[in-house]
Amino acid sequence: MALSRARVASSTLFTKFMRSFSTSSDSFGGLKYHASLKASMVSEMANLDLNSQIGYSMPLSMMRIGTLVHNIEMVPGQGGKLVRGAGTSAKILKVPSSRYYLIKLPSGEEKLIDNRCRATVGTVSNPSHGAKKLRKAGQSRWLGRRPKVRGVAKNPIDHPHGGGEGSYGGSHGRGSRTPWGKPCKCGYKTRNPRKRTIKI
Question: Cβ distance 20 to 43 under 8 Å?
Answer without folding.
Answer: no
